[in-house]
Design goal:
Helix content: 55-70%
Mean pLDDT: 86
Order of helices and strands: HHH
Radius of gyration: 14 Å
InterPro entries: LYRM_2_plant
Number of domains: 1
Pfam families: LYRM_2
Structural class: mainly alpha
Distance between the termini: 29 Å
Strand content: under 5%
Length: about 90
């Protein structure tokens, strides 16, 4: 990814756009899985959380933070595919 050293350039952001959109769509689809123990209201709430996280993440310009956000999204997706709900780490 790294054309810029610390801050992402427009080229860096464009290069990751497809990957991020794919992760976003896959996570939203995974929340519809019948393997997850969620009722309709909980599913809609989780989808709203995902939208908010990706919306806030879209404003990020630090290369390292963007990489961390993508890693976190991939990890969350792997948990959702196993039928588990990702928990907040406190």
């Amino acid at each position: 990814m790294a054309k810029g050293l610390i801050w992402a350039t427009a080229e860096d952001l464009a290069r990751n756009r497809g990957r991020v959109l794919s992760l976003y769509r896959q996570i939203l689809r995974s929340l519809n899985s019948p393997a997850l123990p969620l009722n309709l209201a909980a599913r809609l709430s989780k989808k709203a959380e995902v939208r908010a996280i990706f919306m806030l993440g879209s404003e990020e310009r630090s290369i390292h933070n963007i990489e961390d956000l993508i890693d976190a999204a991939e990890y969350s997706l792997s948990l959702l595919r196993k039928g588990e709900i990702p928990k907040h780490i406190q």
